[in-house]
Amino acid sequence: MDTENNLKIDQLTGTYTKESIREIVEEIALKGENCAFILLDLDCFTKINDTLGRDMGDDVLVSVVNTLKRGLRKDDIIGRIGGDEFLVCVNDVDHISTVERIAKHICVLTKHSLSKGVYVSASLGIVVPAWDSKFTYNEIIKKAEKAMLVVKKNGGNGYVFYNEEIENDGV
């Protein structure tokens, strides 16, 4: 990656910062690489902070990221784009089944029981740009958020691929 020396790391999680992941996505778009983007939002994270405290919330974020780093492919990239939101750039996508397998794996990796009645899991919104299309970071995030909201509305702990039906339903 050409911009690698200029990229910044989130101090808490050790992932790329929002600004850095934006640069990475824009560079991927310019190169026209075969990729997918997975927006990961932790389910009930506010409850974790409110019930167990912010220090435990921070510990959960670090634990989830460390688990993801061990469980994802070495060329996949993770960036923190918000409090408990992460964007995973899945590189070298040869088939949609690869992305689905990775999404299922992320759901398994992120599901934990923390304390009495407190669980963490993740809702994933997935965007797979057409191989020959141009896209921007903002377009990717907007579409991934719409897909992720479908998962949240259905109870969380799952994934949905963005499609035109989601756009047309006004999610």
Overall description:
- With 171 residues, the chain is of the alpha+beta class.
- 45% of the residues lie in helices and 22% in strands.
- It contains six helices and six strands.
- Strands 1, 2, 3, 4, 5 and 6 form a six-stranded mixed sheet that branches.
- A hairpin with a 2-residue loop joins strand 4 (112-115) and strand 5.
- Helix 3 (54-71) packs antiparallel against helix 4.
- The chain is globular and about 50 Å long.
In round numbers, the mean pLDDT is 90
Strand content: 15-25%
Secondary-structure content class: alpha+beta
Main sheet specs: 6 strands, mixed
Please tell me what the overall shape is. Answer: globular
What is the end-to-end distance? 34 Å
N to C succession of SSEs: HEHHEEHEEHEH
Low-confidence stretches: none
From the structure above, extract its key features.
171 residues; 6 helices; 45% helix; alpha+beta; six-stranded mixed sheet
Write the layout of secondary structure elements.
Blueprint (H helix, E strand, L loop, with lengths): L17 H14 L3 E9 L1 H8 L1 H18 L5 E4 L4 E7 L4 H15 L1 E4 L2 E10 L9 H17 L4 E4 L2 H5 L3
Parallel strand pairs: 5-6
Antiparallel strand pairs: 1-3, 1-5, 2-3, 4-5
